[in-house]
Amino acid sequence: MALVTVLSDRETLAAAAAERVTALAGAAIASRERANLCLSGGQTPRRLYELLADPSRPWRARIDWRQVHVFSGDERTVPPDHAESNFGMAHRALLAHVPSPPDHVHRIRGELTDPSEAAREYDAIVRAYEPFDILLLGLGEDAHIASIFPGSPLVSGANPTGSAPHDRRAAAEWVKQINSWRITLTPPALLAARAILVMVSGAEKASAVYAALEAPEDVSQWPAQLLRAAGTRVEWLIDSAAARWLGAPPV
User: Fold this and answer.
1) How many Cα neighbours within 13 Å face the side chain of 133?
2) Sign of CA dihedral 169, 226, 131, 111
3) How many other C-beta atoms are found inside a 10 Å radius of the C-beta of residue 34?
4) Tell me: the pLDDT tens digits for 218-248?
5) Can you tell me the distance from the alpha carbon of 92 to that of 83, in angstroms, rounded to the nearest whole number?
6) 8-state DSSP, 217
7) Spatial distance between the Cα atoms of 141 and 139, rounded to a whole number of angstroms
8) Strands 170-175 and 180-185: what pairing?
9) pLDDT tens digits for 77-121?
10) What is the rounded CA–CA span in Å between residue 210 and residue 250?
């Protein structure tokens, strides 16, 4: 069963996440001389990145960034300097401010003309480094994770362990809900992570949190239910507004 921690507000949530990332990165480096950190897009993780990068806060100095390899959970089909790029956001908030070697930063090349080519390239990168020591995820209002949206072929027909009908680590997905291509990690890549931290903030996410954690299983409708297969390797950090339906279904 996943570990669930409810925090009072978004700032407290971000600080708790910073502490967990720092502890997990330190443990990975001590054990394997490397920490593989996979970042998420979104507003809630951005505050985490700002805290990790802030030299006036305790976390930045406690991580040996020279030993950290950085990855992305998903990306839009845009160049890295685009305002909507997940990598661009992470770079501005975190990577530009810490001494992580450039060859330790492994991004999805969303600017490629063919999204499938970008996915094939990233699949090879992930295979060379997996598993992730720390996988950060957000949660969409429809319970999507990374860019695995409801009805995605990556979860349609998935078996009870959450495995997709293939072993790709990255895939190009046409997301009809947003009429756009995305490049995303696949369920096998997500579920292989040693530790998964899901950060959720805001009342608008309450139904999705309930669906992910407590609703009857329907992975195709609620992709975040995939994470149930990872058991206690999943830690949910949720603010009180997003947690309001836990223990009682939304009406």
Assistant:
1) 22
2) positive
3) 16
4) 999 999 999 999 999 999 999 999 999 998 7
5) 10
6) P
7) 7
8) antiparallel
9) 999 999 999 999 999 999 999 999 999 999 999 999 999 999 999
10) 8
Facing residues of 72 across strands? 39
Give me 63's structure tokens: 């991580």
Q: Which two tokens stand for residue 88?
A: 């661009």
Residue 116 φ then ψ, to 5°: -65, -35
Q: How far is CA 243 from CA 4, 8, 147, in A?
A: 10, 10, 22
Q: Is 183 in contact with 170 (CB distance < 8 Å)?
A: yes
Q: Is 141 exposed, middle or buried (0-12, 13-18, 19+ CB in 10 A)?
A: exposed
CA dihedral sign of residues 119, 175, 180, 134:
negative
In angstroms, rounded to a whole number, what is the distance separating the alpha carbons of residues 145 and 38?
13
Contact status, residue 140 vs residue 221, Cβ threshold 8 Å:
no
- How many of the other CB atoms lie within 10 Å of CB of 37? 24
Beta bridge partners of 5: 237
Question: Tokens 């009072």 — which residue?
Answer: 8
The DSSP bridge partners found for residue 238 are 6, 200
pLDDT higher than threshold 60 for residue 49? yes
Mean pLDDT across the chain, nearest whole number?
A: 94
CA distance readout (Å), 237 to 50, 83, 136: 17, 27, 11
User: Residue written as tokens 């899901």?
Assistant: 198
Query: How is the chain split among helix, strand and coil, in percent rounded to 5?
Result: 40, 20, 45
Instruction: Give the predicted TM-score (pTM) of the model.
Output: 0.95
Sheet holding 74-76, edge to edge: 74-76, 180-185, 170-175
